[in-house]
Write a structure and sequence with these properties.
By secondary structure, this protein is mainly alpha-helical. It has four helices and no strands. It has one domain. InterPro entries: Homeodomain-like_sf, HTH_AraC.
Length: 77
C-alpha cells in the first residue's frame, strides 16, 4: 500500500496530503496520467553515492510531507 510505505497512517491521510499538495486526488491523477511515470521529468539533481571510511553519521526520522521537515533539522542542530 502506497500510503503506508510513504509513512501515512491511513489511505485517507495520504489522500488528503496528496490533494493538498497537488490539487487533485490520487485517483484522478492516475486516471489522467496517459503514460508511465518517468523520474527524469522531476528535474532533480543527480545523485551520487559515495563511501567514506570511518564516517560518523546521525539520523532523525521523518514521516510525511518533505515540506514539513524543518522541525527535524531544527532538532538536529
Amino acid at each position: 500500500d502506497v500510503a503506508q510505505r510513504a509513512g501515512y497512517e491511513s489511505d485517507a491521510a495520504f489522500n488528503r496530503a496528496f490533494g493538498a499538495t497537488f490539487g487533485i486526488s490520487p485517483g484522478r491523477y492516475r486516471a489522467t496520467r496517459s503514460r508511465p511515470f518517468d523520474p527524469k521529468e522531476l528535474g532533480m539533481y543527480p545523485i551520487t553515492i559515495e563511501t567514506f571510511p570511518g564516517a560518523v553519521l546521525a539520523a532523525l526520522p521523518h514521516h510525511g510531507s518533505y515540506q514539513e521537515i524543518g522541525p527535524v533539522f531544527t532538532r538536529a542542530f
